[in-house]
Each structure stands twice: as C-alpha cells, then as structure tokens.
C-alpha cells in the first residue's frame, strides 16, 4: 500500500499514448535536431577565410600629382602577400581616408589597410615603414584572425628584408592540430551540439508534461487517485527518456554518416554515459513543470535554463577564459559535462576511465533534482 | 457506520475562512445533495472529504476512515468526478478507462472485466474507440463517471456533474444515479439545479462557509423558518404579472411576493384568505386569474434561508 512508485505503470502507459499521438513533439524531437545539425555542420565554417578588405595605398604619392593608382612596387608586394594568405580578399582600392572609413562603417569591408605616402621611401632609407591595419572588432573571431595573420605577414616580411638570403631561421614552430587535424568545422561543432540538442528537447518535452495536465484539469483528477508523486513523475519521465535515447542515436548516426565526423571512442559508451545526461535534463524539465502555472510559463522557464546552460557549458565560448564566478557556476550546468563527454569520446577517443566521474555527477544531479520535483509535487497534492 | 461524517469542518486560506464549522452525516446509499451559491465553499468541502486538502479544524470520516490520518486510504475508497470531466482528450474511451483502472492497481483479466462492466453500465460501448475529446458533453460525462467507478468505490463525489449538459443527458444521468444508489453506492453531489435538488434523498445548503440547512427535501419545506406560524403561501396567476406584483405588494397582510414565470409566489398572513386576496387585488385593477395554496419549492426554501442568514450575519456585524 505504501509503495512510493504507485501509479508508475499507469502513467507510463498513458504518456506513451500521448507522445505517440503528439506529432508536434515527435517533429520537435527529430526534425529540429537534424535541421540544426545541417545548419551548424554544413553552413558554418569557423575557419576564417577571404575577409573583405579595403585598401588605401598612398605609397609614392606626391603632393602635387595626387596619389598614384597602383602605389609603389614595395606596397604592391606587401598587398600581394596579404592576398595570398587566403585570409584577406581585397574588394576595393580607395583614394582617401574618408572613403576608407566609410567602407568600414557600412560593413562592406571588415579590414582596412592603409599604406602611407612615405612607405617606400622609409624602407629605402632604412627607417621603420608603418602600415596601418584597421580591423572591425564587432566579430571577435574575424578580428582575431585578421590581427594575427597581418602581424605574421609583417614580421615575416621584415625578417626577409633584414636577413641576408640563405640564412637559416633559428627556430621554427610547427603547430599540429590534434584530434581534428584538418580543422574541420563539423568535427568541432557537432559533438558538442549533441549535448545542446538533447538539452532542448528533453527539457521542453517534460516541462510541458505536468503543467499541461494542470491546464486541462486532469491533474486534479489524478491527485484524487492513489498514485504517488514519485510514480507519477517517473512515469512521465520514462517515455521521454526512451525518446531521448532514440534521438541521441539518430543524431550520432547523422553526424557520423552524413557529416563524416569520425568517432574515435566507443559510440556505445557514449550512449550509455549520455543516459545520465538525459535523466538530469528530464528531471529539470519536470521541476519546471511543477513550478509553472501555464504552458507558456513553462516554455519561458525552460528557455531561461537552457540558454544560459549553452553559454556556460563551453560549447560556444571556452570555459577556461571565464571569470571565476562563471567558471564555478559552469560546474553546476549538466551540459558542461556532456559537451566534455561528447568531445572526449568522439574527438579524443576518451574511455570510461576518463569520463566516469562526469557521468556520476550528472546522475547525482538528476537524483537531487528529481527529489526536489517530488517535494514540490507533494505539496501540490496536500 | 455512516458513509461520510463531518464534524465542525474548518478550512482557512490565510485570513479567509472558506468553510466554517460545517457538520453533517451522510448515510450509506443516500444521494446527498450539497448546494450553495458559487464560492460558498462546496468544492473546498469536497476536497477535504476526498483527502486532497488538509483540514484547518474539525474532523471527518469517510467510510469510517479518518481523512486526517489516512487520506490515501480515503482516496482508495472513493470515486471523484471533477467539474470539468477530467478526461484525456487525446486518449480513446477505452484508453481512458484502462488508464484509470491501472492507476487504481487493476490489471490483466480483472481490469478487462471491470472495464466491460462499466462500459455496459454507462452504455458507452459504441464509442469505445473514439477519442474522448470528440465526445459530446453527455457522453464525456458518462465516460468520466465510468472512470470514477472502475475501482468500485463505495462513495462517489460528483462536483456539478450536469453543468453544461443537455436536458436529456441530465435526466439519463439521474436515472443512472438512482439505479446505482439502489445498489448501495453513496453519492455526494453538488448542483445548482433545483430540480436536481428535489431528486436528492438528503440535502444540505452551504452559504459563505456556513451550513444553513440540512435535511430531507420534505423536512426543509416544512421548516418553520420558511413558512412561519400564522402565515401561508399562495400562487397567484394573473395577466400583466409585473403590474399584479406591484399591486399585491401593497395589500395588507402580504409578507413577501416574487415572480415565478407567469405567476406570483406570495407569503401572506393567515388572516388573509384566498378569496379576500383575489378581491383586494382585483379591486386595485389586477387581472387575477387564479389563486392556489402553494407548498414552498426548494428554491423558495433556499432563497428564504439565504435572506435570513444574510440578515442575521448582517445584524451580527
């Protein structure tokens, strides 16, 4: 009589029927992830190339004749170096600072290069010749790449001019990208994306589950039955848990075979560890559902938890550079562990030895949140 | 052992006392009508008696079980049909029944047998595979009743079971309730309809949290408060009934008069006879057709009790 799981089977039976009849939820769980993967996998390339660049080349201009069209041989050589780097694409030559500025402000050009009048003369006389590179800072990734590459070109060109021909460079640094040698964007984006996609779907689906019954008035009826809170909540979570596992498999298959992201670790292990992640997100959705009074409110609460989770998880911005407060906070975000796990297994080939603690933390979180939800739900009954 | 016993039930929400010292006893097999205006504490009382709302004071026993001690035990023994027929619209009739059966721990062959019985009893067999959301009001109500009865509760609480149901379905539901109460099931029914109140074997009337009437319909009609000694009631049929009402109210010996359809219900002093009243009204220009002695309807009873209660509480405050 005092079975705390009472009602679990009945609720499970009913929720499976609900989920099966709810085409929108099924669409939501399968179409949305595939759509997002397509966008992030195919459309987005983090390797920055061909940044639109505008040039003001005043090199060799005289006060009387005005600027020449093609600068000097030295300035042209420098511009060729920039162009050949693949980072810059010169879209326009302008003839005044005003025009240069205008191209930058309108956003037609992200980089503006200004070579001053005395560039060639300074080089010839052995003085330091200056080149100004203006970079649009509104996109930090583009800006960083532009600054790095232009600096490197400058340094390289300087060395070439100082050192006599045939000199051996004392040190050469050869970077090697491990785990993602081709620096392919899908390899970087998609493993972490599994965490984000699962987060959305699982939190949303369960966030609606109880509040929907509250709105329809069926919850009142349910509370009059001998079903117990733990039975009701677990009965509601389980079908969506199964849906989440299916979805995870679909995402992994899509990632591996459509986007050709190699999986270096064990896919089975990944699915197994992910169940902890699914569980904790489903319980968070359930907690939201016991708190919200309407489906609209549940939606907002779900958004309020999922969006910060994504930003704190390290999926988009690296956690290592976060201020201490946020860094600590990110440890309380399940997605943090999952992004780590997914990248670990898929890219680095990590195994259970490296990841078991992450999985344990998530399951612990899940149990705590579930108990909180049960407590809130029990208060609704009495 | 009575089916339900409430003793001095109290429920407060903050400063507001929704139910204030309510006591009554419902015997087994009764159809107990619990009446009162909206917001007077009917649903709150029900929620306490089905073990989902704790009591602020007093005590209640349902089928002998103390709701304060074992609310879950109470929930096992009762059936409850809420105001909105809480069914799952996207589940079929059969699936709704299966779900509620399973919640009460029924399974396998026993579950199937109970479902078959309820389908037969409520005559919903033709709709077994229809989605509940597609049923009309009357059928929804039957299904809801079926779901509430699957586990064979001894006591069924129906909170406004006929709100928004057409008259034929209403009549059929009451026929079903009589049939079931004949089998020993106790019904606790709330309603606004006076004709339904007439069908109950036991009535209670709650007004702003206080119980102001408790008894059989006959005993309530006979209450001295309703027709005080030295007075009697008449039903006056007249043309231009509003004019007639104004005239009637000015006649010596008239205590109160209200319009019911095309006639006037009047409470008059004993000294004012039938012929005398007709004569006096005609003399003032009323087109009186007929005057008959009247036993008070339940509506008269509740209107009178409510007015008296308001006067009393008004005087107290």
> Helix and strand succession of chain A?
HHEHEHEHEHHHHHHHHH
Number of strands of chain B: 14
Q: Which whole number gives the mean pLDDT of chain A? A: 88
- For the record, give the distance between the C-alpha atoms at the N and C termini of chain A, rounded to a whole number: 18 Å
How many beta-strand elements of chain A?
4
- Unreliable spans of chain A are none
Q: Please bin the fraction of helical residues of chain A.
A: 55-70%
> Going by CATH, what is the homologous superfamily of the largest domain in chain B?
P-loop containing nucleotide triphosphate hydrolases
Radius of gyration of chain B: 23 Å
Summing up helix and strand content along with how strands pair, one would put the structural category of chain B as alpha/beta
Explain what this protein looks like in three dimensions.
The complex is a heterodimer of chains A (382) and B (317). Chain A has 382 residues and is α/β, with parallel strands linked by helices. Chain A contains 14 helices and 4 strands. Helix content of chain A is 66%, strand content 6%. A 4-stranded mixed beta sheet of chain A has the order 2-1-3-4, sandwiched between helices. The mean pLDDT of chain A is 88. Chain B is α/β, with parallel strands linked by helices and 317 residues long. Chain B has a 6-stranded mixed beta sheet, with helices on both faces. The longest helix of chain B is centred in the last third of the chain and has 19 residues, at 298-316. Chain B is elongated, with a radius of gyration of 23 Å.
């Amino acid at each position: 009589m005092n079975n705390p799981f009472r009602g679990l089977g009945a609720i499970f039976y009913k929720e499976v029927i609900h989920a099966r009849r709810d085409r929108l939820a099924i669409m939501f769980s399968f179409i949305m992830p595939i759509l997002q993967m397509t966008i992030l996998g195919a459309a987005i390339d983090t390797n920055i190339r061909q940044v639109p660049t505008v040039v003001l080349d005043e090199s060799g201009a005289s006060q009387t004749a005005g600027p020449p069209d093609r600068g000097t041989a030295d300035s042209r050589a420098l511009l060729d170096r920039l162009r050949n780097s693949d980072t810059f694409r010169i879209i326009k030559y302008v003839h005044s600072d005003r025009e240069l500025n205008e191209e930058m402000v309108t956003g037609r050009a992200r980089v503006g290069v200004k070579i001053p009048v005395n560039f060639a003369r300074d080089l010839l006389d052995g003085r330091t010749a200056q080149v100004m590179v203006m970079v649009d800072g509104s996109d930090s990734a583009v800006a960083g790449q532009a600054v790095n590459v232009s600096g490197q070109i400058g340094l390289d060109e300087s060395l070439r001019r100082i050192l006599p021909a045939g000199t051996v460079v004392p040190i050469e640094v050869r970077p090697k990208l491990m785990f993602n040698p081709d620096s392919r964007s899908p390899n970087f984006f998609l493993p972490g994306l599994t965490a984000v996609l699962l987060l959305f779907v699982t939190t949303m689906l369960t966030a609606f589950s109880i509040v929907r019954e509250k709105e329809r008035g069926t919850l009142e009826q349910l509370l009059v039955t001998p079903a117990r809170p733990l039975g009701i909540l677990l009965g509601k979570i389980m079908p969506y848990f199964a849906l989440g596992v299916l979805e995870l498999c679909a995402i992994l298959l899509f990632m591996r075979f459509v986007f050709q992201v190699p999986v270096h670790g064990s896919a089975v292990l990944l699915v197994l560890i992910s169940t902890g992640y699914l569980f904790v997100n489903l319980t968070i959705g359930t907690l939201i559902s016991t708190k919200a009074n309407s489906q609209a409110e549940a939606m907002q609460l779900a958004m309020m938890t999922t969006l910060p989770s994504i930003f704190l998880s390290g999926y988009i911005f690296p956690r290592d550079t976060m201020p201490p407060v946020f860094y600590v906070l990110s440890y309380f975000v399940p997605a943090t562990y999952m992004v780590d796990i997914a990248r670990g297994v898929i890219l680095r080939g990590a195994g259970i030895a490296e990841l078991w603690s992450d999985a344990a933390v998530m399951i612990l979180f899940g149990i705590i949140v579930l108990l909180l939800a049960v407590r809130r739900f029990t208060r609704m009954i009495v | 052992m009575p089916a339900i016993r409430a003793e001095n039930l109290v429920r407060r929400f903050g400063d507001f006392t929704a139910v204030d010292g309510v006591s009554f006893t419902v015997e087994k097999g009764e159809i107990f009508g619990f009446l009162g205006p909206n917001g007077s504490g009917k649903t709150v009382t029900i929620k306490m008696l089905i073990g989902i709302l704790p009591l602020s004071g007093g005590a209640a026993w349902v089928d002998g079980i103390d709701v304060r001690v074992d609310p879950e035990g109470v929930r096992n023994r009762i059936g409850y049909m809420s105001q909105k027929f809480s069914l799952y619209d996207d589940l079929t009739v059969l699936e709704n029944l299966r779900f509620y059966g399973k919640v009460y721990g029924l399974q396998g062959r026993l579950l199937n047998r109970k479902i078959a019985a309820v389908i037969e009893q409520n005559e919903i067999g033709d709709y077994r595979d229809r989605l509940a959301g597609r049923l009309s009001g009357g059928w929804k109500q039957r299904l809801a009743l079926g779901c509430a009865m699957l586990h064979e509760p001894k006591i069924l609480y129906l909170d406004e079971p006929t709100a928004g149901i057409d008259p034929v379905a209403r009549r059929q539901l009451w026929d079903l309730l009589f049939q079931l109460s004949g089998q020993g099931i106790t019904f606790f029914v709330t309603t606004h309809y006076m004709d339904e109140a007439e069908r109950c074997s036991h009535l209670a009337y709650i007004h702003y949290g206080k119980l102001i009437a408790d008894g059989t319909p006959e005993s309530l009609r006979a209450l001295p408060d309703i027709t005080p000694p030295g007075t009697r009631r008449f039903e006056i049929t007249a043309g231009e009934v509003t004019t007639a009402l104004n005239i009637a109210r000015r006649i010596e010996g008239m205590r109160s008069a209200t319009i019911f359809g095309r006639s006037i219900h009047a409470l008059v002093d004993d000294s004012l006879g039938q012929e005398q009243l007709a004569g006096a009204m005609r003399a003032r220009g009323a087109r009186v057709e007929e005057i008959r002695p009247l036993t008070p309807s339940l509506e008269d009873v509740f209107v009178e009790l409510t007015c008296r209660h308001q006067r009393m509480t008004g005087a107290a405050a």
